[in-house]
Amino acid sequence: MEPLFLFAPGAGAPSSHPWMQNWKKRLSEIGDVEPFDYDYMREGRKRPDPLPKLIAVHREALAKAREKHRSARTFLIGKSMGGRVGCHVSLEEKVDGLICLGYPLCAMGDRSKLRDQVLRALTTPILFVQGTDDSLCPLDLLERVRSEMKAPNFLRSVQDGDHSLRVPKRQLHGTGGTQEAIDQEIFKAIAGFVDRLVITAD
């Protein structure tokens, strides 16, 4: 039975955004993908709802997705805020793994305001996919938090990547690489993480 991916968006763009659609298409190669939007997005508001409301909507989306797919394995994957809310959901709902595409560790990019409490509370295995130039998640701070986490945790870094895991064109020209190739490497890391957990569970 294929794994189920519940795919949560970041704070600024809905599930219909091309970035989300690109990753939905890729993930569908290894499982069933259910993207969703938080209420404030559906209602056309810019400011995210308070965290408890985001968590409630995320849990509701999870229940609906599970009812629809009846999958044996469930993964919560999210862009930025969606990944962070997924971490909170995993404290209340049993899921097999978490995948954070650009975890927003520093609130407003402030190194002194870390959103690390939920990470330290996790017991669910988690994969962080982080750009090395992401000001919302300096890798030195993430490494410190990871070393103190209880949950099995893994990191796939994207050299010169930003908060959306995109590498500037000038950097790509310098290395002869392409964004497509970078995305494919990220996809392989996600697929490997999922396979590892499915094999372990079996």
Explain how this protein is built:
By secondary structure, this protein is α/β, with parallel strands linked by helices. It has one domain: Rossmann fold. Helices cover 43% and strands 16% of the residues. The chain has helices at residues 18-27, 39-42, 51-69, 81-90, 117-121, 139-147, 169-175, 179-201; strands at residues 4-8, 32-35, 74-79, 97-101, 126-131, 153-158. Strands 2-1-3-4-5-6 form a 6-stranded parallel sheet, with helices on both faces. Helix 1 (18-27) links the parallel strand 1 (4-8) and strand 2 (32-35). The two termini are 12 Å apart.
CATH fold name: Rossmann fold
Which overall shape is indicated by the principal axes computed on the Cα atoms? globular
- The CATH class turns out to be Alpha Beta
Return residue spans where pLDDT drops below 50 for at least 5 consecutive residues.
Answer: none
Gyration radius, rounded:
16 Å
From the 3D coordinates, which CATH architecture would you assign?
3-Layer(aba) Sandwich
Strand fraction: 15-25%
Largest sheet: 6 strands, parallel
Overall tally of domains: 1
- CATH homologous superfamily grouping: Alpha/Beta hydrolase fold, catalytic domain
Class based on secondary structure composition and strand pairing: alpha/beta
Q: Count all strands and give the number.
A: 6
Helices, by number, come to 8
